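Suppose a classmate hands you a notebook page containing two proteins, each written out with its sequence and a corresponding row of structure tokens. How would you begin to make sense of it? This section walks through that situation. The first entry is reproduced here exactly as it would appear on such a page.
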Amino acid sequence: MKSVVLYLVASFCLLLSSIARDQPNIIVIFTDDHGWPDVGAAGIYEDLKTPNIDQLAADGARCTNGYVTAPQCVPSRGGLLAGRDQSRFGLETNGSGLEGFNAEVTIAERMKAAGYATGQIGKWHLGSVKEIPSHGFDDVFAKHSAQPGWANFGLDGSDEEPGFEETGMYHLDACSAAATAFIDRHSEEPFFLYLAYRAPHVPLDAPEKKLYRFTGKIPERRRQALGIISAMDDGIGAVRAKLVEKELTGKTLIFFIGDNGAPLKIHKVDAPGGGPGWDGSLNVPMNGEKGMLSEGGIRVPYIVAWPGRIPAGQVFDKPVSSLDVAATSVAISGAGSSELLDGVNVVPHLAGEVKGVPHEVLFWRWSGQSAIREGNWKLLIGGAREYLYDIVADPGETTNLMTKHPEVAERLRKRLAGWTQELNPPGFIKGMATAWERYFDHYLDGKTVSSKEAATLDPPAVSGWIARNAELKVKDGKLRVHDLNGKARLSPFIANNQVKLKGPFRIRIPAVLADSKGEVSIAWRISGEKDFDAVNAVTMTKNAAGEYEALVPAEETVIHLRVRLPEGNATIGGIVVESSEGELMQRFRF
């Protein structure tokens, strides 16, 4: 199917070759765990220093009702790049498999077929970085930490043999330098650039030269976030300066969007170090945080600038979506039809040529939460809880109007239920993890969640193993994996990223008792890899003793394991790792 779509796109684009020189460039800047108000142009927090982002807003439109499709990194990115709600192809959460995404035609593939040079820079988080070119990106500089990234071009603009980059630069500065190098490489042809800064996501790692910009008595995690955002802002300034140098400003459309709201962990604890916890960004006056379909989780910074095409200085208050990036890119470039895409071309709306709203309705489903926004109304469902808000009068979601307007809630519920039937799997997903239940308690129901309780909300590890789409309990020396979603929903899996196992080795699970039949599989990540490579996975088979086992053929050191289980609840009797010669390497007892 994917090849057929690409063939049709390419055929259509051949008809437009005579106007290729008029195709605009497109840059998509995607930030990471970045709260809706955390740009200076929003006018809410005075401690920010974002002159270049503010100028981008002044030169275009700041969309105050800009949304993403999920309150979490992986599904949000998958939806953006595919231009279709990620739950249509099974990419529900960070723990979902990538098979559906891998079969989608990305914006980059569509743009490449239309004659565009394509580039990916920064955070990927959608599988192995080595596979990025297979998703339509010719130029790759994948980097989101102090560790070496993966690249096939250099900061001097030269082609390089694909492999680890070793610039030694701060990751945000390196990504900015790569972006300007990409523009240099392709200034004479139309280009599409996906610039995904890991900012201000943890670990908080702002360099001292950025922190010096922020003095006074503020939480250290806030200071770190300000420094990280400032470093990203410097890079955006460099990118725009390069466009001016190449006389491309009026020929380039820029999107600036966050991937989801900031993680606050309820109490914004100013814990030392730069690791997990509050990332220092803020969502107020929006309610909630990353991991919620409340406004604090899905309403994000959203700026669109195209000098000469989109009038400057706008504050656009009609709802727009990250899904609009693909539909807009396809429409303005002539890259085929947007019939199969979920977004709309926002340029005519921002240019004042179309007076109606871009979206009559927006839908969301993320694990056990679902939501719909229709005009002023928003219905939010979390597990067994339901909330109805006049989201225009009450953007902070403070007053639940369910009892006052039950007929509105019922109409929206039916419409939302109908949409969920188009998804994979269809329908509502039941059950929420304990963390999300507590978030709803605190933000939406006014119940007190203490700092001590909040500190326990991240999934507890059992002998180094944590669960996804499930919760873990130990009973009678066995690990009970309680599926939060029920059968025919998201398959649960357990993972351990604290291992150091020199391959090849054999892994055995003495007993797996599950509610439903299905495969048990093992996936692994080796040292130096940022994401799981699709080829590093095998199905486990039953041996004569009834144990599940598989050979992990890795030659390098394995640092991360995932065991995917059948749908429903499961019980595991233990996990044993042996060398290929049968010698015991590690035993996990529960």
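The notebook's second entry, a different protein, reads as follows.
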Amino acid sequence: MATDRRQQIHAILKQHWGYDSFRPLQEDIILSVLEGRDTLALLPTGGGKSICFQVPGLALQGLCLVISPLIALMKDQVENLKRRHVKAAAIYSGMSYHDIELVINNCVNTNDMRFLYVSPERLKTEMFRVNLPHMNVKMIAVDEAHCISQWGYDFRPPYLEIAEIRKQLPGVPVLALTATATPEVVTDIQQRLAFPKLNVFQKSFKRDNLTYYVVKEEDKHNRMLRIMHKYPGTGIVYVRNRRKTREIAEFLQKNGIAADYYHAGLDAETRDRKQNEWMNGTVRVIVSTNAFGMGIDKPDVRFVIHTDIPDTLEAYFQEAGRGGRDEKPSIAVLLYNDADLKDLQRNFEASFPTIETIKKIYECLCNEFCIGVNEGKDTSYFFDIDYFIKKYGLKVMEFASAVQFLEKGGYLLLSEELNKVSTLQIACGQTELEHFQQKHPEWAEFTRLLLRSYGGLFTNYVKISENEIARRANSTPERIEMALKKLNDMGLIHYNQGTTKPKLLFLENRVESRYLFFDPAVYSQRKVVAQKRLDAVMQYVSNNKVCRSQQLLAYFGETTSTPCGQCDVCWHAQRQRLLQAEFDNIRQCMEALLSSGPMDLKALMNEAGREFKEERITEVLRWLTDQGFVELKSGQVTLSRAGRASRK
């Protein structure tokens, strides 16, 4: 049976991915799931986590339910599976009711849907819960599984719903996956997912080909240039805010580096273009916030530079780990100065606004969209963050942190997954459309134009351009948008208008702010946990005595690793050993020369200079003089009694 399973999964791997063999641990993880065992897989960034659930998902001949908080990653994986001729779909916050209903109906009524990706907040919706038992679910994959742990760096309460839906799917195995988890989080994940037995597969987080450097530097821009000149190849520069992405990219361009910038505030079309240009090598360096990198598997990244200190070691390890996935030598450099350390502590304090402030911002959000008490559940709105912050006189960090608490409380969700490109589908058949055109001749030519411009409108959502339709219709984009909205209201089409604004989704009905519940003990506990993570980052940056790789591995529970021999700490220690050895050799040479009696200083320097550099000889002579081992008078150097004693 085991042999048959191995043959089956190898055949699937070859058929859909073209690989002849699995990476380390992948096969063991897949077989564990196929044996029906709940499994936790810890694989570092670039370790091939998606293969671990996609291969068994295909082998089990049913539906694999994939739970992920990353909308962009869900979309990418669905598109990748479709390109491999595997039927897959996704449900996430912000989709229209019609779109969600269509996906769920396909999962319930067809047998060829193999993967359904859902964001965790969808798990408790009535539509999903009612239909879940009617889906042929054979496996549950939980991506970014650290989000279920209260000790994890990105705890998300909606993940707690996973244990509840398991009751509706008895006997269905769970595969939990994460790239970063401390030992405490590893145990908590399994308990919260209701594993009957602990079952962990963990690949060492050690990356022999990736060298870590922490460099104290005031002139970060020019240090970056020196790094890029020294290490040819593709790279990523991570910064904390969007403004810096553009500034640094322009600085690099002016200095002859093919660079571009990337952040979540760009429209989808622009982000895709920038990402593709970096992937294909047209752009050498991408400067980005942490919005960049999830799900991107570019193997030949030679350097990853952080110009700001990340908030957690988990985040740093994931981002740095995007370097050297081809197993060739790569570097991860963290540049910092004293001001950065102060900013990190200041940002931490700002990330925990008072409970009263959180309640105030919640009220402002509800008032902005005219949501009354006991209203608003599952409604979503395009949201102009800058306008909102200015209107209500809020601080940016205060607002962002309050929203995070409201998200973690399950009240709302702010999605910055922008959708610039509009999509369109005809909501009826060909015959019904012809009847509509006869009944509404004023719309006949416009609907025919849509059909001439885009194929597949009757069966699928198709990406459209209002500007292009306007050009063909000799009209304006504004009028085309109005016409499409009108047809949508008439029920003839389903029109999803693109936008450059993020979306705010209210997960529950509005409650009076006095009933908005944030347990002070939970609030305090989260702050304590966050402080520990901050302390770990500060310790990593400031500790120049222990190998960087050893520090990171110890944080994730690997306490028996050996020094890497390459990081800034190891390099400095090795240099010190070499300098000490040279120092000792010079000292022995000089003491041997002086053992026969006093020497003229110039003669001593000339004699020792046959083997050693003058500046090092001067340094050793100064030390010998300070320590009282030699005496220097009137240009004569004499070995003292203490010096003679030290030679014995």
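A careful reader of the second entry would note: The mean pLDDT is 89.
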